[in-house]
Design a protein that fits this description.
283 residues, alpha/beta, Rossmann fold, 40% helix, globular
Length: 283
């Protein structure tokens, strides 16, 4: 996939967005600010020189506690990023606000690149990991992680059943077909029930359809629901309430990082997906 032009420090009218594409032609950078929690963990595992990250970049814990924070993923403090004098800012099209990235592109010096990833499939995640390794001259480390994850994940699994993946409770929202979560489910043999909604409704609803103003309306769209720990913090109290209110449906609390983080978290997540598959088979 080719690099697309969007506003960049090299040209005040355009910055470049990497849609999980090759970035080996970029200038080499050393000082990195990461605005994406999953990439932050991966960058640390590559032993890159991460000098700043968002308040949601919770892994690894030592870096979370010690490194400067530059605001949230949707509320980046541009002045703090500039103070850190990065050579590279790693961002994501879905997780970061376009306005923040445009502001960074306007104010950062031409020597600093802004790399905006847009990862929507498992394959694109592997490509982006390789690209970041090349960009940071950490090719061996990146390819080692890619190989380990490919080995842990294996080939796409046989379908064990259908479920929907909630991303919010009020309103009740779910992951749609054109998302990384959807492709992770596909790989692990979990059919995304939301993909069965009428195509017109999906087209109008976007990538994360709003299925209803409350749980009672939303859960009607699937017999099984996966309730992740993020972005909405589903917990035991939500599980109990839903099971009591919807006795004809099954619900499982799942690790939101496992389903939505790319990078090295994918390696840690493999065992969790096997657990979800066992639940799907038994329920």
């Amino acid at each position: 996939m080719a690099l697309a032009d969007v506003p960049t420090p090299h040209n005040r009218e355009t910055y470049r967005t990497c849609h999980a594409a090759k970035v080996a032609d970029y200038l080499r950078a050393m000082r990195v600010v990461s605005l994406v929690p999953s990439w932050t963990e991966f960058l640390h595992d590559l032993q890159a020189e991460v000098v700043g990250q968002t308040k949601f970049c919770i892994r690894p814990d030592a870096a979370y506690r010690s490194l400067p924070r530059v605001g949230g993923t949707k509320t980046v403090h541009v002045d703090r990023v500039m103070e850190l004098r990065p050579d590279l800012v790693v961002a994501n099209k879905e997780e970061n606000a376009r306005e923040d990235l445009e502001r960074l592109a306007e104010l950062l010096p031409p020597s600093c690149d802004i790399l905006v990833t847009d990862v929507r499939t498992v394959g694109a995640a592997f490509d982006a990991m390789s690209d970041l390794g090349a960009r940071l001259e950490r090719v061996a480390q990146a390819e080692s992680w890619v190989a380990r994850i490919r080995d842990a994940w294996g080939d796409p699994k046989p379908v064990v059943g259908s479920a929907a993946y909630a991303v919010w409770a009020k309103p009740w929202m779910a992951a749609g077909p054109d998302t990384f979560i959807h492709d992770v489910m596909r790989h692990w043999g979990i059919h995304n029930a939301v993909a069965d909604l009428p195509s017109k409704k999906l087209a109008q609803a976007g990538r994360y359809p709003n299925l209803g103003d409350d749980e009672a309306a939303g859960v009607q769209h699937a017999g099984r629901w996966l309730l992740p720990s993020e972005p909405f913090p589903f917990a035991a109290k939500h599980l109990e309430a839903l099971e009591n209110a919807q006795p004809g449906r099954q619900f499982m609390l799942v690790d939101g990082e496992a389903f939505s983080w790319y990078g090295t978290r994918m390696w840690h997540a493999a065992a969790h997906f096997e657990e979800v598959r066992r639940w799907m088979t038994a329920s």
